[in-house]
Design brief:
The chain is of the alpha+beta class and 387 residues long. It has eleven helices and 17 strands. The chain is 33% helix and 20% strand. Bound molecules: ligand EPS.
Length: 387
């Protein structure tokens, strides 16, 4: 089935992604992958790195004349910043320079535990791979994989619901409307008043050397009922999405549908009633965000993801120097004030990848023809249920 591996340090020569399990004969549009990478680079409050990079994939295997071959797809993304790090990140032992060792771990980052676990005396050996630069690879994997779902009219839309405690009012809008309007917003929100307040707060944080987090929402429409399964814990769509999203740098929480709110109300107030929907069967509401019993219900899938503030503070917090054991201030790396607008694109890609994996587990085959036949046969089958 579908799987992927990523490799690459933040300031190494490149990022590499290998996606294995793509069915053969799928038309693959590289521009749609690069479009997602460009979206990930945007957002008010990002740091200097995004001015250096212009992320784009190069296919190194698995694609011929615009179609997947069924073999592993290798994508390489160049790090333009590499030219400034060639000796600092060199593989050659002759380039070693102990004067540039980083020894003051940043609270909230992987720095301290990473040095303890891997027995490193240089925090750089940890932070290079722990960096959210790695999410470029995941966005590429998601952008490739979702081209399978898009053929069957599945839409996956990510945007920001809240940044630095300021909530966007999206209450009167459909997910499509929110998504379309948020695409032209610097903070990926479809609420101009919230956008203005967020920008002011980011400016304020930049001045005081602080950072912000926020909540993003991802909505997927057009999914058939029955992706995932109730029969075993590791096949449940909720668990799969939560695990995939919790693995994104800085994520501290995942909610599906109304999430934690469901714990505070009566069953009669929250369960989605089953009603006739034209010739089919539907739901009167979608409080459970498009999943029931570990399976997609056929209603729009709605996931919210909480990102903590960026760990690198320009006015650093307390730390302990791992070389001298003296209390000091944490090291300062170039960084962002906020990356939540980019996080919406990352969460969208992660959801897209995981849903594609679930889709192929259900309808999988070796070719476009086989997957399409399986999918259409299933739609025909559920139309007959109860008739
Ligand atoms: C990022 C690239 C990084 C950071 C950011 C995400 O580049 P650099 O370290 O050269 O500035 O801007 O990573 C972090 C905030 C982090 O804490 O790791 C990117 O490509 O998104």
């Amino acid at each position: 089935m579908l799987r992927f591996l990523t490799a690459g340090e933040s300031h190494g020569p490149c990022l590499t992604v290998i996606v294995e399990g793509m069915p053969a004969g799928w038309p693959i549009d590289i521009d749609r992958i690069n479009h997602q990478l460009a979206r990930r680079q945007k957002g008010y409050g990002r740091g200097g790195r995004m001015k250096i990079e212009k992320d784009a994939v190069e296919f190194r295997s698995g694609i011929r004349w615009g179609e997947s071959l069924g073999s592993p797809v290798t994508m390489v993304i160049e790090n333009r910043d590499w030219k400034n790090w060639k000796t600092k990140m060199s593989a050659d032992p002759a380039d070693r320079d102990d004067s540039i060792v980083v020894t003051r771990p940043r609270p909230g980052h992987a720095d301290l535990v990473g040095t303890q676990k891997y027995d490193h005396g240089d925090v750089r050996n940890v932070l290079e791979r722990a960096s959210a630069r790695e999410t470029t690879s995941r966005v590429a994997a998601g952008a490739l994989a979702r081209q399978i779902l898009e053929r069957f009219d599945v839409r996956i839309m990510g945007y920001c619901a809240e940044i630095g405690g300021i909530e966007a009012d999206h209450s009167e809008m459909t997910p499509e409307q929110i998504f379309e309007a948020s695409e032209s917003s610097e903070v990926r929100m479809a609420d101009p008043a919230a956008e203005k307040a967020v920008i002011e707060k980011i400016d304020e944080c930049r001045k005081s050397g602080d950072t912000l987090g926020g909540i993003v929402e991802v909505c997927a429409t057009g999914l058939p009922p029955g992706l995932g399964s109730y029969v075993h814990w590791d096949r449940k769509v909720d668990g799969r999405l939560a695990a995939a999203l919790m693995s994104v740098q800085a994520v501290k929480g995942v909610e599906i549908g109304v999430g934690f709110h469901a714990a505070r109300v009566r069953g009669s107030e929250v369960h989605d009633e089953i009603v006739k929907d034209g010739d089919g069967i539907g739901r009167a509401s979608n409080n459970y965000g498009g999943t029931e019993g570990g399976m997609t219900s056929g209603e729009p899938l709605v996931v919210r993801v909480a990102f903590k503030p960026i760990s690198t503070l320009m006015r650093p917090l307390k730390s302990v120097d791992i070389a001298t054991r003296e209390e000091s201030k944490a090291a300062v790396e170039r960084s962002d004030v906020v990356a939540v607008p980019a996080a919406a694109v990352i969460a969208e890609a992660v959801v897209a990848y995981e849903l594609t994996r679930l889709f192929l587990e259900k309808f999988g085959g070796d070719s476009l023809t086989e997957v399409t036949r399986n999918y259409e046969g299933y739609l025909e089958q559920i139309r007959r249920i109860g008739n």
